[in-house]
Amino acid sequence: MSKPADKPNQPAETVEFQAIDPSKAADQFRAVAEKGIEQSQEALAKFQFGVEETQKVLKSTFETARSVGNELSLTTIAALRANVEVDFSHLEALSGAKSLSEIIELQTKFLGKRVEMGVEQAKDFRALTTKAVTDISKLAKDVFDKSLRDLKAA
């Protein structure tokens, strides 16, 4: 067969279409519509599942954050209480000092003890915040990994 552009004086090729049977058209239209509905329902089910999974993860993340927040609050209160107790003990000791050398000695011991306490408290806070970040980021990583697996499977 030749193309119309090759021979301008010849008629274009005729394309034949299958005849549409009106009695089958309704059945074919119904089949296409049912397939579309089925695909829409599957997509909706996947979307609902994704929403439910995301909701579970967010709830778990917030519970973890709340738990860690409570733990940080309790650790902060304990540290503040320990600091106040040491400060008051130091003031009592200073009030009973009899000489300047005794005051200097008490002050030196107090400062050393406060530095040690500060270092220990900083270690406790660091460990606690590291644990919090690890726990929360693990949840986020798990969700991200699951989402990637689901996308690859789809």
- Oligomerization state: single chain
What Rg is obtained from the alpha carbons, in whole angstroms?
A: 38 Å
- State the end-to-end CA separation: 44 Å
Helix count, per DSSP? 2
Shape: rod-shaped
In what range is the share of β-strand residues?
under 5%
Main structural class: mainly alpha
The average pLDDT value, as a whole number, equals 83
InterPro entries: Phasin, Phasin_subfam-2
Pfam families: Phasin_2 (PF09361)
Protein name: Phasin
Domain Phasin: 71-142
Secondary-structure map:
Blueprint lengths: L21 H74 L4 H54 L1
Helix pairs in contact: 1-2
Care to describe what's here?
Helices cover 83% and strands 0% of the residues. It has helices at 22-95, 100-153. The longest helix is centred in the middle third of the chain and has 74 residues, at 22-95. The chain is rod-shaped. Helix 1 runs antiparallel to helix 2. It has a domain at 55-153. It is built from two helices and no strands. By secondary structure, it is mainly α. This is Phasin. Residues 71-142 form the Phasin domain.
Q: Quick gist of this model?
A:
InterPro entries: Phasin, Phasin_subfam-2. It contains 2 helices and no strands. The chain has helices at about 20-95, 100-154.
